[in-house]
Amino acid sequence: MANFKGHALPGSFFLIFGLWWSIKYPLKYACKKNKKVFSIGSKTGFQRIEVIEGAVKAAFALIGILAEQFVPDGPHLKLYNREEHQWDHLMNWQHSTMYLFYGISGVVDIVTHTTKAVPLAMDRMMLSIAVFIEGFLFYYHVHGRAMLDIHVHLLLLVSVFGGSICIFLEVFHRGNIILELFRSSLCILQGSWFWQIGFVLYPPGGGPEWDLMDHGNMLFITMCYCWHYAFAIFIVAANYGLVTWFVQTKLKCTQPMEMELLKSREHESDDDI
Amino acid sequence: MANFKGHALPGSFFLIFGLWWSIKYPLKYACKKNKKVFSIGSKTGFQRIEVIEGAVKAAFALIGILAEQFVPDGPHLKLYNREEHQWDHLMNWQHSTMYLFYGISGVVDIVTHTTKAVPLAMDRMMLSIAVFIEGFLFYYHVHGRAMLDIHVHLLLLVSVFGGSICIFLEVFHRGNIILELFRSSLCILQGSWFWQIGFVLYPPGGGPEWDLMDHGNMLFITMCYCWHYAFAIFIVAANYGLVTWFVQTKLKCTQPMEMELLKSREHESDDDI
Amino acid sequence: MANFKGHALPGSFFLIFGLWWSIKYPLKYACKKNKKVFSIGSKTGFQRIEVIEGAVKAAFALIGILAEQFVPDGPHLKLYNREEHQWDHLMNWQHSTMYLFYGISGVVDIVTHTTKAVPLAMDRMMLSIAVFIEGFLFYYHVHGRAMLDIHVHLLLLVSVFGGSICIFLEVFHRGNIILELFRSSLCILQGSWFWQIGFVLYPPGGGPEWDLMDHGNMLFITMCYCWHYAFAIFIVAANYGLVTWFVQTKLKCTQPMEMELLKSREHESDDDI
Amino acid sequence: MANFKGHALPGSFFLIFGLWWSIKYPLKYACKKNKKVFSIGSKTGFQRIEVIEGAVKAAFALIGILAEQFVPDGPHLKLYNREEHQWDHLMNWQHSTMYLFYGISGVVDIVTHTTKAVPLAMDRMMLSIAVFIEGFLFYYHVHGRAMLDIHVHLLLLVSVFGGSICIFLEVFHRGNIILELFRSSLCILQGSWFWQIGFVLYPPGGGPEWDLMDHGNMLFITMCYCWHYAFAIFIVAANYGLVTWFVQTKLKCTQPMEMELLKSREHESDDDI
């Protein structure tokens, strides 16, 4: 859907996931750090969360596919126009394909965390592939458009391929909080950038059009991308701080003495460079 | 051989290997997981399988070289045409070179798994080099052809170089089931894409020709590549499920009690994130 | 600031940091090697140094932002020129953005080394991101300039992206002296190259102008870049030698006997390849 | 020196080093495998070899620099031609710069293996940098030449950058026989390819000139590069086999009984996938 909503929809999906991850992973990290206190129920709890996350991901993907296929000017599952001897609504089909891989990733998440047959790292591998496919299709997607249109999509690819590499590294470094926070920030960046693309290419509410061939606009938009990322870093940092503060407050209330001991011991092992 | 058969032949080779890997590695993984039950004979068995695999690879490579050289319009081992002062059948020679490196990889497989002198990881290294050489030659292969012809071959390179990197990682992470399944899926993708290239460039049975300069065709073929990969993932997942189900069924019949204990213990160690 | 000072300022920042790192890391390495002798106070001392380093980095970034914004011909925080309907002083804004990310990196350094809530590797991750953003903005920065102008900036990118990758590796290999020295040398290279760019593009003191379109100049400048790096390597090696010599001299004065024992034991473990 | 000798000289250097490495590393590997038998003197012996290797490397680099500077049509250390206001003999100066970094690498080798102050991995890091600089300078070296001239140099870059990455990996995986053999093969490839470039661009003995703009020649030369690599692999494999056979023969003569025990034990630990 080459309009504002077609960019706002995936943008919202990515924002929701990015924000959620920026809460989940710090929480997991804080719980793991204070293992003895939070041991009861936390493991099965986190496993249930992973399953729900996979289900939500698959649901979002399904919504995306349905929206792309059955909007009024969509292809309605028709791929080839026999009268005009050309492919029908290829853009919508490409977007559907992107959603399809995120759907597969969601299903793999569910299977990985409900059964024991699949190795754990498979959820990361499949997500990494899904993100790569998104970038791969976008790369060939923008051929032959206006300069600024191409540029905003190419900028998106930086966060997409960055995310794919980051998630692939998680296959080997599972549970690395640095990579998890990095992924969260890239996901928020992608989400907010989809909204930005929508505002630039299809100004809502009859706002002024952007000059798609102006070199100044291109320089500005590149810089704007960095500001989006600074904003994403700020969000992730704020969420990390809040979650850490929340966990420590709750800890102090329950077991003030024991906690202090644990904390000091952890500092020592952390410092060991 | 720039015709349908010249693409169907390597395509079939890759499909056979991809399918075989998508059975072998899950089987190995399941046996390793249930080590105490399957310990008898499995190690020497798998070693013999590796030797056979190497022999089949070398045989396929030899068939490929012979086919490229001795088809009616082939070079018949002649490299330089002295009358016309130009190289003779360079395409066939390039394909022969690709097969040659797969042949070397097959021989290295055999030597690695029969003698003890060669370090184990050498089989992966040599396979990685063989796949890289394939991609390297393809990259310079398509210079100056029609747009769609170039594009379908460049798409192939994604799976080729992806496979080469994946196998190179296996040098350091040998026996990582994630990488092994990833490799299997890329190999199936390559095989099915060779068939697709054959159908696009040389439609068999007098089918309609593809317009090699149409932009819509290019967008479609990119998407089609992703569908092929979704299909490859599905095949690998199905084979993985079948093998795992088969191993567990067989286990339950023989030692139901002991098995349960083993399984629960494994879950615990797997969960340790 | 597209003038000599605008390149000398960041150049000096990078030179100061590079030189400082080429002293700090060998010192840390020598102290760690002679652990038993230097144990008292060294850990808290190095931690305090990290905090100060972060504060200096943030201060430099602030100076850079203020200089870019409030020089006489700067934007003075004005982004859009409503009269002429175009963006205002985009170059200065881009430079401010680069400094901003270094500022964030400085703040993260301080937080990481004062509180215990943030994982240690976060300081490296954020520095890696800051360096990447610098390279990212430079890459789109030089569009449409003279050949030699583009070339000197692209050469800079080699050290920038090299540095970013090196620091990212440090997330996983923290405390690896090889990577730390490599980073120091790249940082010195970047600093001295900023000065070189200033001298080439804005010859100070009314020196002769460089012909920005001459192919010979381009070849020379590429080679000159390598000489800068040879010089950076020499500086790092000299500092490494001096620091090591200083630590060992100081050791010999205090505990000559014990030292010998330690040294011989270390040699043995070092040799174990 | 843009003539046959100017390519044969570095080609011979690389060939000598490649061949030497393809003997040294298998020998080291075989000795390490049979540790208990070969323990006496082997460690100090190998260390002395490393020092000699560094000295030879530095000597070769010095010969290269002197040859580039003081051939009859060389720059004789003159960099700028003040009469004609242009740089003097930039090609020779670029080659000298390449040799300079190999010289630094040689010196670092010597220092690393004679004193204990420098971390061991530094020799690999510096060699990796030297190889990278070679590729970096070659990349900007060939601008504006004939098609085939550019192509043969770009092909060289594959082995140069491949070698640089391989050596950089050795910083982290020191003593990995796979990487060491890979490096040997790439070094032999580089050496033989330098000779090939000499034969193509400056046919010695008044042979027929190559048509530098012919597309067929370009395709052939790409394939020829792969054959060179197949040849390099063969040489490394042959040397590996000879060395292994030699070590085992010598072992059998001295301690036949003890050896058998060691061997069988090793097989077991090797098999543990």
UniProtKB/TrEMBL annotation, chains A, B, C, D:
Broad class of where this protein is predominantly found: membrane
Annotated TM spans: 6-23, 125-142, 154-172, 227-247
Residue ranges the record marks as coiled coil: none
Mode of membrane association: Multi-pass membrane protein
Signal peptide stretch: none
Source organism superkingdom: Eukaryota
Subcellular location(s) per record: Membrane
Keywords: Membrane, Transmembrane, Transmembrane helix
Record Pfam families: DUF716 (PF04819)
A single Gene Ontology CC term: membrane
PANTHER family per record: EPIDIDYMAL MEMBRANE PROTEIN E9-RELATED, TRANSMEMBRANE PROTEIN 45A
Family note: Belongs to the TMEM45 family.
UniProt name for this protein: Transmembrane protein 45B
Encoding gene (name): tmem45a.L
